[in-house]
Structures are given as structure tokens and as C-alpha cells.
Amino acid sequence: MTIGEEPATGDVSPLGETSGAKSATVVATLPNGMFRVAMPDGREMVAHAALDLRKAFTRLIAGDEVQVEVSPFDPCKARIVKLIKFRSSKPAPPISPYKRELS
């Protein structure tokens, strides 16, 4: 980068890591609104729901596919930014009304 050139927005964090949402699967629900998520490469990390998900009363349960943003300061922590809708040609299995009830 030269003088006067603007940095690319959203591409690289101050520590040099790329920022962006990655897919993950919720493995377990932990106390205090935390979740254990598993990345496709096998890593597990602790994540919390972003404010948008909390305001929308989104209930996350084990097995849900989510998008997470990994913290550039601690690679073992993440923020859940989006619940990925179940996309399949066959209909989704019915979910018990007790599992997804609003609080």
C-alpha cells in the first residue's frame, strides 16, 4: 500500500487475518448465551450470538448450521452472525414445538 491509497474494506484485519463469515455447526449450548461450534476443518470454538440474532429471538439448538466470524485476537472465540436456513430438495423434518419455543 502506498501513500494516499485506501485500504480494502473488510478484506484484512489489523493482524493480517482475513475477515469474513465462515460456516459452522452448533455442537452444544453452554451457559450465559454461549455455544460450542464446530468448523468444517474440525476445529471447535466458543461462540456467542450477535445482537441481531438476540433481538430477533432466534433459538439455536445443537445441529443448526450457522455463519460465524472468528475473532482476530483469539482464534478460539467467534460470533454467530447468521442462522443458515435448511436448504434441501426434500422437506425439512418436523421440529418439536418444545425445542424452538420463544422465551
Overview of the structural elements:
The protein is mainly beta. The protein has one helix at residues 51-55; strands at residues 22-30, 34-38, 44-49, 65-70, 77-83. It has a domain at 22-83: Nucleic acid-binding proteins (OB fold (Dihydrolipoamide Acetyltransferase, E2P)), CATH 2.40.50. Helix content is 5%, strand content 32%.
Write the layout of secondary structure elements.
Layout: E1 22-30, E2 34-38, E3 44-49, H1 51-55, E4 65-70, E5 77-83
Parallel strand pairs: 3-5
Antiparallel strand pairs: 1-2, 1-4, 2-3, 4-5
What is the gist of this entry?
With 103 residues, this protein is mostly beta strands.
Which features does this protein show?
OB fold (Dihydrolipoamide Acetyltransferase, E2P), 1 helix, single chain, globular, 32% strand, 5 strands, five-stranded mixed β-barrel, 103 residues, mainly beta
